[in-house]
UniProtKB/TrEMBL annotation:
It comes from Lactiplantibacillus pentosus. The keyword Kinase does not apply. InterPro entries: Uncharacterised_YfhO. This is YfhO family protein. Keywords: Membrane, Transmembrane, Transmembrane helix. The keyword Protein transport does not apply. The chain crosses the membrane at residues 12-31, 82-100, 107-129, 135-153, 160-179, 199-215, 236-257, 298-315, 322-343, 355-373, 385-405, 411-432, 439-460, 853-874.
Length: 883
């Protein structure tokens, strides 16, 4: 009986609304051979370079290491994680990943992706049925148009946002109930769920809710007094939602101040971002490709059935003119937001998106389909004058696109013709007189499903994906190498490597590394990395250019290097899935470990690593360093020698090249900062810098941000330089070590007519002096007796006055220190690290991390939840007493 009720005449439209989008996408993915149905995977762009590793971290944290919930040393050299959870990992769908370890996580991603399509359709269907807007076959018709919207297809690779499409209809249902019943709880509850699931998209939903309230105020207008009442309840609902989610929002807000908020726009340009007519091209099917990811127009394609229904909303006489006017104003505001910079910035919280522009276009898709569903609430046949109006608008749209097709590269003539055919068939269908409502509803569903399926195929066929083999082999090789180190390593240590699949490899394999990429990355680490010669960017740090100094300072106790196979075929194989991104001649100074190596990876142990903490001169607390520098080698020397309380000019020396050969390049006498120009512009220009080391010391060449692979190719002794390709500050390249008497040739091949040798200098590290400093700093280590990601305890013997416990834990107000059981204030040194002042003698030092504002936010949420529940209980008792 219960099962029959579960599948009764009221629920079957919901089931179809769920299963139809899910099956359409599943069918397409099977056709594309996505794992587990083939050799490909859904990994592409950020999903393959960022999210998949964070999902692996999510799984490892919940199953194996809950201490990483608030803080993780897998996030570069250490970082807070509340902001990461709030932006990337709060979706309940992520629990599915618990069942998919290692390389099988791509199967989990497949399942989660299609489920999100299904729940988007189900959610919209729920809105339609609960508001009595539609029934029968038209429920899945409009729900499918919504679930497979252009925004959803274009952003399925940003799957952390997809929950929004399922939650938005429930927030709007809450608003509808606020207007019709006066009840706030549905709106406040679902808005709180949205803010917890993803605060970033939740912010956009809040903005759209404000617009929707203006529309709802005219739709449900009674009198001015009632409108004020609705406005107050709307404001109260929003505040209650914020309070219920404060336990997450407050610590996240603090985290944002340390990360994304550092990059907010300070200047607003009151201008159009592009010619608005270009938006019309997005009504053509298949107008999404790779070029549209970094920059382009908003993706809002929906089925032409929904588009015509949307137009019909403004042509139906049953809607009041005030309702139509408010709907038109909301539409105009959204459309203007798609091309007017100040409004674009408003939707994106005062930050231009890095890739994936107009991320809020899902609200326009919702708006089109929702108004269209209301317009066809009573019948799906339109009058002749309405059809002619639609025809005129459609002809105008397609004519504009056709005449400007060369200006919109993402539109093909084939797709334009297909869209014209779809629009024509749909318009003819709408004008036909319909005697039997049921059969025409089914035809409408077929039309919409076909229309949206064509857009899915035409759009996603433009996208390439990472092969399952490439991902799986790399993941397995990395896991095997890391697990060997974990099985033998003791205490706290960090691991470096010369190869990279993504900057979040440490999170994927759950080890303490030094790379990271996320939108909630604290800016102090990229800033520090950039100043010591490592590639960095907004939200990015890659430890690919470590020197012996930085390896020692940052406690890189182990280094993994790709093992070069003897077979050339194998070498080609390895190159495809273990990409080398670092040239590290210094590995010859470290101890190769057969015990820790695997068939794919050679592991080295660094005898000069200082540990997570050590006694150092308190001069480091007074050292002032600028945020950036053009001389990262000198910066390293200054920091290291200050810590060791030794001369800050004894480690590094600038060296001259023995010979410089110019081929088709005009000669210059001074190299650093010189601008090189070709002699014959049509021929290749090359420069060869030669030197012969007189010692076995380490040699480094610094390359300014202008000296990247976009401007030149780089070679060492005729072989292409292995280097992470993007950097915005000067990097240090390790070109020689233990090469006494061997000529080293550093070649540059110009890709343009001129080349600026920005910060181009050859340096020598005095290895003997370095070892002396390292040995001195290793004399009083912080002997860690217990450690997790958020609590570290150890003992240290301070042998001299004027020393501090220096750690390479990134500074944060969340870290709290106790010395011998007593609370002690920490210090921020060199704008980056935590140091603890100590007196001479033996001490037990404990560092504990507590996310700032987590307790405050939890109290606000707790009080709000208890107060809300208490309010409902009191009201119910009063009602029962009255009855």
């Amino acid at each position: 009986m219960k099962l029959r009720r579960f599948f009764d005449k009221r629920t079957w439209p919901l089931w179809i609304s769920f299963w139809l989008p899910l099956l359409i996408m599943t069918g397409y993915f099977i056709y594309r051979h996505m794992a587990p149905f083939g050799s490909s995977s859904l990994l592409t762009v950020d999903l393959g370079q960022q999210y998949v590793d964070l999902f692996a971290y999510f799984r490892h944290t919940l199953l194996h290491d809950p201490s990483a919930l608030f803080y993780s040393f897998s996030k570069t050299i250490g970082g807070e994680m509340v902001g990461v959870w709030a932006y990337y990992l709060m979706s309940p769908f992520n629990l599915i990943y618990l069942f998919f370890p290692g390389q099988s996580i791509t199967t989990g991603i497949f399942i989660v992706t299609v489920l999100k399509y299904g729940f988007a359709g189900l959610s919209f269907a729920w809105l339609l049925t609960k508001t009595h807007t539609q029934k029968g076959w038209l429920v899945p018709t409009f729900s499918t148009a919504y679930a497979l919207m252009g925004w959803m297809v274009a952003n399925q690779l940003n799957m952390i946002w997809l929950d929004t499409v399922a939650i938005l209809p429930l927030v709007i249902l809450g608003l509808e109930r606020l207007f019709t019943t006066g009840k706030v709880r549905y709106f406040a509850g679902w808005l709180a769920v949205m803010l917890i699931d993803n605060y970033y998209m939740g912010y956009m939903v809040v903005l759209f809710s404000c617009l929707y309230w203006l529309y709802g105020a005219t739709k449900y207008w009674q009198d001015f007094k009632t409108m004020i009442k609705h406005a107050l309840k709307f404001a109260w609902g929003g505040l209650l939602a914020a309070a219920l989610s404060a336990w997450l929002l407050l610590p996240t807000f603090w985290a944002l101040i340390q990360s994304k908020a550092q990059y907010n726009e300070t200047k607003i340009h009151w201008k159009l971002e592009y010619a608005p007519w270009k938006m019309l091209a997005k009504f053509v099917t298949g107008t999404f490709n790779f070029d549209q990811m970094p920059s382009g127009q908003p993706n809002f394609y929906v089925a032409w059935f929904a588009i015509f229904a949307f137009i019909l909303f403004f042509l139906r006489r049953r809607f009041k003119w005030t309702v139509k006017l408010s709907a038109l104003l909301v539409t105009g505001f959204i459309l203007l937001s798609f091309c007017y910079e100040p409004l674009d910035l408003l939707w994106h919280a005062d930050q231009f998106p890095v890739w994936y522009p107009y991320r809020f276009s899902f609200v326009f898709c919702f708006w089109i389909v929702w108004l269209g569903a209301q317009a066809m609430a009573d019948k799906i046949t339109i009058k002749l004058w309405q059809a002619l109006t639609m025809l005129a608008l459609t002809v105008g749209l397609f004519t504009t696109v056709y005449l400007n097709i060369k200006k919109v590269s993402y539109v093909t003539q084939a797709n334009l013709l297909i869209t014209i055919a779809l629009a024509a068939i749909t318009l003819i269908f709408l004008t036909l007189p319909k005697q039997r409502r049921l059969i025409y509803q089914i035809v409408a569903l077929i039309l919409v499903a076909t229309d949206m399926s064509i857009n899915v195929v035409a759009s996603l066929n433009n996208i390439s994906y990472v092969s399952q083999s490439e991902f799986g082999k790399y993941t397995t090789a990395l896991d095997n190498a890391v697990n060997k180190i974990k099985a033998n390593g003791k205490g706290f240590y960090r691991i470096g490597k010369t190869f990279t699949r993504t900057k979040d490899d440490p999170m994927q394999a759950a080890y303490n590394g030094a790379d990271h990429f996320s939108s909630t990355f604290e800016s102090i680490i990229p800033n520090f990395f950039g100043s010591i010669g490592q590639p960095d960017g907004d939200g990015v740090a890659a430890y690919t250019n470590g020197t012996m100094i930085t390896d020692s300072l940052l406690d890189m106790q182990y280094f993994m290097d790709k093992k070069v196979p003897t077979s050339q075929n194998d070498n080609t194989n390895y190159r495809s899935y273990i990409p080398v991104t670092s040239t590290k001649k210094d590995l010859t100074n470290y101890q190769k470990s057969k015990k820790l190596s695997t068939s794919k990876v050679t592991t080295y142990k660094n005898p000069y690593a200082l540990g997570l903490g050590f006694a150092a001169s308190d001069k480091i607390t007074k050292l002032k360093v600028s945020k950036t520098t053009g001389d990262p080698i000198a910066r390293q020397e200054l920091i290291y020698q200050t810590l060791a309380n030794r001369s800050t000019s004894s480690l590094i020396s600038a060296e001259n090249f023995n010979e410089v050969v110019f081929q088709n390049v005009k000669k210059v006498t001074t190299l650093t900062g010189a601008v090189l120009n070709k002699e014959n512009l049509s021929k290749t220009g090359s420069i060869y810098f030669k030197f012969t080391p007189t010692t076995n010391d380490s040699y480094y060449i610094t390359l300014g941000a202008n000296l990247t692979t976009s401007n030149a190719s780089f070679y060492i002794n005729g072989k292409e330089l292995k280097q992470y390709p993007t950097y915005r500050h000067t990097i240090a390249v390790n070109v020689a070590s233990n090469s006494k008497g061997k000529t080293v040739t550093f070649g540059i091949q110009m890709k343009k007519t001129s080349l600026w040798l920005q910060n181009f200098t050859l340096y020598k590290l005095n290895n003997s002096q370095f070892k002396t400093s390292a040995k001195k700093l290793q004399q009083s280590p912080w002997n860690i007796s217990a450690h997790s990601n958020r609590k570290i305890t150890g003992t240290i013997n301070i042998k001299h006055n004027h020393q501090v416990l220096m750690t390479t834990i990134p500074y944060s107000k969340g870290w709290h220190a106790t010395v011998d059981g007593k609370s002690v204030a920490t210090k921020k040194v060199i704008n980056t690290f935590v140091a603890v002042p100590l007196s001479k003698g033996k001490h037990t030092v404990t560092l504990t991390y507590r996310p700032p504002f987590l307790v405050t936010g939890s109290i606000i949420t707790g009080v709000s939840a208890i107060g809300t529940i208490g309010w409902f209980v009191i009201r119910r008792r009063r009602r029962n007493h009255a009855n």
